[in-house]
Design brief:
The complex is a heterodimer of chains A (351) and B (284). Chain A is mainly alpha-helical. Chain A contains 14 helices and 2 strands; from the N terminus they run αααααβααααβααααα. Chain B has a single domain, classed as ABC transporter involved in vitamin B12 uptake, BtuC (Orthogonal Bundle). A two-stranded antiparallel ribbon of chain B has the order 1-2. In chain B, helix 1 crosses helix 8, helix 2 packs across helix 7 and helix 3 crosses helix 7. Classes of the chains: A mainly alpha (351), B mainly alpha (284).
């Protein structure tokens, strides 16, 4: 009896995930038909989406507004650059090693920013500063190639083993898989004991502590998990560009773009990040083209989008969608005059 | 020993800059509880403002302080209004986004208008000899200005009715509201004043600082360091914290390597945050 309940519940959860899986299958089917230039944009959007998914997890589950995820992104990129060009190790290993490096880097930041009860703006401020300082910091570290960065050694021929390909398609497939994996992973994590505890910390830290939750380790662990999940995006980006420089991996456009992708889509739903990335990346690229590729233009576009989010859709697209469908459900209920199923807090569930 | 004395002098002069930048930031963070990410970029904007007036119109940088205060007061009032409408509707996240938006707009705006390259002002290289150190007069003026500003803002906070309202709002915004203080107006005034101070800081340091559109990050870091080390909301504390960081950085760059200077401030910030975190209530 119990097992049957379990399995039906499990089946229900899989059923919930089905639309997302279908969405990704559709995305994978569209990709080969696109032109080369569009594929580049497509790939970039998937990179943003991957970072934004884990940014959203942190923001939604813990209320932490991190502006430092670009550092963890760069950690992945630099790890693979060093693996390929200096140590002659397979880039596939750097997918894992980059995550480890990113998690290690996140520890002192998490310790400083999250150990005590600090307000959201201090975390944002500190992570922004860490991200900005690391640009000049990487510039003076000789091992990381200084400000010119590291050029990845080009393999004699494009192959799976060297993670270098003639087209963007293999990277797109990898990113689709990673995105889907990240969405499912964070969806499960958010609905696990760990995720519930994070949300109780987010809602009331004192109460959570009083319930016996070790607040600081949970916060720092969540930060590290989110950091580790970002690194593979950097690894793939560096492999795709065959380049790891402070400019290519730590630019302010990436820093802000990741956050915007997450917020445009909305943090309450896991698909929000993907939607957000697929809106914001083409938008900034087109704007750059229209205004003649001046260096400041795409940044300006990001700034304007920030204002739009802040002024018009603070909840993001998915949040607006949720409140819209909540309202619609409420209206339908009032018409039917049946009050049996109150609409729960949909903002909590990832999936 | 002579090197040490030299480094101290240089450190104090550099620290004056940090203090100048930090005074406004400590106010906006301490009283209005807004992390204005654009604070460093506003300092940069002040520098370009001086550059524009000096190279195009020929106005002396110190005379530029007068129109500068007016321009930045208007700018500050506008930013305050936006911050307020946002905190009403979208809370802290809205404020963070707006701050980030301001930062990006100022940075990319300057780089579109003035070009991304560095620009020197070439104003005056006159210097005096202090302890065997050639010290530019303009740096001494900045030091003096930092001290005057710290004392003036301190007086504003302690002995005016606006200042006392600021203290009340900073301690307990809800309580202040119940006592009949218009919290919104006090916060607006604080934001505007901090923007003006950022502008003044930029104008004051422009004669001896090479300006780039993206220099705001370094100023934001030093401003944050000043806030973390000095007491939140205290201008005098900000000045001394600035001097402290300046001296530490100067010693580090003199005895270790100058390229590590930004890392020193970051390290100091992290150590201070881990050892002695800022006392704030969690997000409400």
């Amino acid at each position: 009896m119990i097992t049957s309940i379990r399995s039906s519940r499990w089946f229900g959860k899989v059923g919930q995930k089905l639309p997302i899986v279908l969405l990704f299958i559709a995305l994978a089917l569209i990709a080969p038909g696109l032109s080369r230039g569009t594929q580049d944009t497509y790939l970039l959007a998937l990179i943003y989406a991957l970072v934004a998914v884990s940014w959203n997890f942190l923001f939604n589950s813990l209320g932490v507004f991190s502006l430092g995820h670009v550092v963890f992104f760069a950690a992945g990129g630099y790890t693979t650059a060093i693996f390929v060009s200096k140590l002659d190790i397979s880039p596939w290993l750097s997918l894992v090693a980059g995550s480890v490096v990113a998690a290690l880097i996140s520890l002192p930041i998490g310790l400083a920013a999250l150990r005590r009860r600090t307000s959201r703006m201090y975390v944002a401020l500190l992570t922004l500063i860490v991200a900005q300082v690391s640009v000049s910091l990487v510039g003076v570290i000789g091992f990381l190639g200084g400000s010119t960065g590291i050029y990845l050694e080009v393999a004699p021929e494009a192959s799976l083993g060297s993670m270098q390909f003639d087209t963007a398609m293999p990277f797109i497939y990898m990113l689709l898989v990673l995105n889907l994996a990240a969405i499912l992973f964070f969806g499960i994590l958010a609905n696990s004991r760990f995720g519930y505890r994070l949300r109780s910390i987010r809602d009331d830290e004192v109460a959570a502590e009083a319930c016996g939750i070790a607040v600081a380790p949970y916060k720092i662990a969540a930060f590290a998990i989110s950091a580790a999940a970002v690194a593979p995006a950097g690894t793939i980006f560096a492999q795709y560009q065959l380049l790891a420089t402070p400019e290519s991996l730590l630019s302010i456009n990436l820093l802000v773009g990741f956050v915007i992708a997450g917020l445009v889509g909305g943090a309450t739903r896991s698909w929000g990040a993907v939607v957000g990335a697929f809106i914001i990346v083409p938008l900034s690229q087109e704007a750059g083209k229209v205004f003649g590729d001046k260096p400041g233009v795409s940044t300006l576009v990001f700034a304007l989008v920030l204002f739009v989010i802040a002024l018009v859709i603070p909840q993001g697209i998915s949040g607006t969608w949720d409140s819209f469908s909540k309202k619609r459900a409420a209206r339908r209920r009032s018409i039917l005059k049946s009050q049996e199923t109150p609409v729960g807090d949909q903002g909590v569930e990832l999936g | 020993m002579e090197l040490f004395a030299n480094l101290i002098v240089l450190g104090i002069l550099a620290g004056a800059v940090y203090g100048l930048v930090g005074i406004g930031f400590t106010m906006v963070l301490g009283v209005a509880r807004i992390a204005n990410f654009a604070h460093g970029s506003l300092v940069v904007l002040g520098m370009y403002f001086t550059y524009l007036l000096y190279t195009q119109v020929g106005i002396n940088p110190y005379v530029a302080l007068l129109p500068g205060v007016v321009v930045f007061a208007i700018l500050g009032a506008g930013m305050a209004a936006l911050f307020r409408t946002r905190s009403d509707a979208a809370g802290e996240t809205g404020e963070l986004l707006l701050g980030l938006g301001f930062l990006l707009i100022i940075e990319s705006g300057i780089s579109l208008v003035a070009g991304p390259g560095p620009k020197p002002l070439n104003y005056s290289e006159a210097s005096v000899n202090i302890f065997g150190n050639e010290v530019e007069v303009t740096k001494l003026i900045a030091l003096g200005l930092a001290a005057i500003l710290a004392v003036a803002v301190n007086m504003l906070i302690r002995s005016t009715s606006l200042g006392r309202s600021m203290q009340a709002v900073s301690l307990d915004a809800e309580g202040a509201r119940i006592q009949g203080i218009s919290v919104d107006r006090v916060k607006d005034a604080t934001v505007a004043i901090s923007v003006v101070i950022a502008g003044i800081a930029g104008i004051a340091i422009s004669p001896f600082t090479v300006m780039t559109p993206f220099g705001g990050a370094a100023f934001l870091l030093s401003a944050f360091a000043v806030v973390v080390i000095g007491r939140l909301g205290s201008p005098i504390g900000a000045l001394f914290a600035g001097l402290f960081i300046g001296i530490i950085q100067s010693l580090a760059s003199g005895y270790i390597a100058s390229t590590w200077a930004p890392l020193v401030s970051l390290g100091v910030v992290l150590v201070f945050l881990i050892v002695r975190p800022i006392r704030t209530e969690a997000t409400s």
